[in-house]
Write a structure and sequence with these properties.
heterodimer; A: 189 residues; mainly alpha; Arp2/3 complex 21 kDa subunit ARPC3; two-stranded antiparallel ribbon; 10 helices; B: 285 residues; 2 domains; 9 helices; 2 strands; 65% helix; globular
């Protein structure tokens, strides 16, 4: 198993034109596909397959791209739907943290991120799942901001969101990694 | 498929303001509302939010569905909170509350205080949504990047925000092309799937090609930015933002509200839940 060098670690935080363009594409796609999400009849939960883009962009392009995709993408989705860019800023931050944590996968999942294509795909699902469970803890700030009961936040918001997003992440992130890796090689990345 | 942000407030009094004003007002007002729990003060803040919202002249017919979603979401959240909280209201223990009745089956006590809390939360959410709507409909999408940069967001990230809004129409068109292409092959992503897993699986043939095409196509943009020396020095923006006197007055007004709410919390009772006397009397009968 290879270990991550200090150079590789510092590259995680580099901001280049590539970082900015991938961030903007991730955020635009996430915001766009959030609006096109499919409601489940008879349920308060929406299927958000688009959410898988947040851990995927983080995992594939690093923590800055992941954070931007989640944070700005969620805000843009709110903006398009009319809720307003900043009204639920803590939710946008929670989405951003998911992308950030998934983007830090090389620091805690090096065995997967530096392995075969299959390993990298599995690593994407694992990193995404860890990121969803931890990142969305930030929505408990609604207890302070909105005076909501912790149990309400857990049962009405946190649990439905992480269940839906975990399913989307576990199914879609590996598929996206499998689709992206050959393209990445072809582009000489 | 028209997914781009709708600039419905174009030409209105609020849309003529510097876009930074609308962003600052949301920050100032949200932190004002967050400090207030007195329903009477919140009603006053809601009235201010409605006046502000009306100045954006957003046509009701075009956003009534957005409001329906807001009301449904807020109503559901507040109702569930009232049930789950089980009568616990701020610092008041459930056994000291003025119980009006118990919910059938669940047995949750519904007190004068828990009803007040629910109505207060509803008003808080509504107030914040009302002040947030103009950002969605009264700022030109192309102004976000420069507005955030002038508010202190680092240049590269402000450019990223600008780029995000510029990518939306073309990516929406690409997404629609992918949906159409799959339909021609006999695959309709929005039909035929049942249940949660089925829906997610069915979205894969649409989402994956859209995402990979977008990333692969980004190389042209990256090359163009590199060739123009992106990030090598300070950049200029096409749009220049200048506050006018009205902008300063609007910001000052909302800043004063924030100061008043903060002082009210320290020296007054605006941070405590207010329960109408008639509800308490009702419980006593």
């Amino acid at each position: 198993m290879t270990t991550m060098t200090a150079d590789n670690r510092s590259r995680l935080w580099e901001v280049t034109s590539r970082t900015i363009v991938y961030s903007a594409i991730g955020a635009a796609l996430y915001g766009l596909l959030l609006v096109a999400q499919l409601p489940i009849p008879g349920s308060t939960v929406s299927v958000r397959p688009a959410f898988a883009l947040v851990p995927f962009f983080g995992y594939a392009f690093g923590p800055i791209v992941g954070f931007f995709t989640g944070f700005v993408g969620n805000a843009v989705g709110d903006q398009i739907s009319g809720w307003g860019l900043l009204t639920s800023w803590n939710w946008s931050l929670a989405n951003g943290f998911v992308g950030l944590i998934a983007g830090l996968a090389p620091l805690y999942l090096a065995r997967f991120t530096e392995g075969s294509l299959r390993d990298r795909a599995i690593g994407g699902a694992i990193a995404g799942s860890i990121a969803v469970v931890i990142g969305f803890l930030f929505i408990f700030t609604d207890a302070i901001l909105q005076g909501m009961d912790i149990a309400t936040i857990f049962s009405t918001l946190y649990l439905p969101v992480i269940i839906g997003d975990l399913i989307g992440t576990i199914i879609l992130v590996p598929v996206l990694v499998y689709a992206w890796e050959p393209v990445k090689d072809r582009l000489g990345r | 498929m028209n997914i781009a942000p709708r600039y419905l407030g174009r030409g209105s009094w609020l849309a003529r303001r510097d876009p930074r004003v609308l962003i600052l007002v949301v920050f100032l007002f949200i932190f004002t509302v967050l400090q207030v729990w007195d329903g009477r003060v919140l009603l006053l803040l809601l009235a201010i939010a409605i006046i502000y919202y009306r100045s954006a002249a957003i046509p009701w017919a075009q956003i009534r569905r957005n409001w329906a979603v807001v009301f449904t979401f807020i109503g559901l959240l507040v109702f569930v909170n009232m049930l789950v909280a089980g009568g616990d209201v701020q610092a008041l223990p459930a056994d000291q509350a003025d119980v009006l009745f118990y919910m059938p089956i669940l047995g949750t006590p519904i007190s004068a205080q828990s009803i007040s809390l629910a109505l207060t939360q509803l008003t808080r959410y509504l107030t914040m949504a009302t002040i947030g709507f103009p950002i969605a409909f009264a700022i030109a999408p192309s102004d976000f990047g420069v507005a955030f940069h002038r508010l202190g967001v680092p240049e590269k990230f402000a450019f990223g925000i600008d780029l995000t809004f510029r990518f939306l129409p073309s990516l929406a068109a690409d997404f629609q092309t992918t949906v159409d292409a799959q339909r021609i092959r006999g695959f309709d992503w929005s039909a035929g799937a049942t249940g949660f897993l089925g829906r997610v699986r069915r979205s894969t043939p649409v989402i994956v090609p859209t995402v990979i095409n977008a990333i692969a196509g980004a190389e042209d943009t990256i090359d163009a930015m590199d060739l123009r020396g992106f990030g090598t020095g300070r950049r200029s923006w096409l749009r220049h933002l200048i506050y006018d006197r009205t902008d300063y007055l609007v910001i000052a007004f909302f800043a004063l509200l924030l100061v008043a709410a903060t002082l009210g919390g320290f020296f007054g009772t605006t941070d405590e839940l207010w329960t109408p006397q008639f509800l308490i009397d009702l419980a006593g009968r």
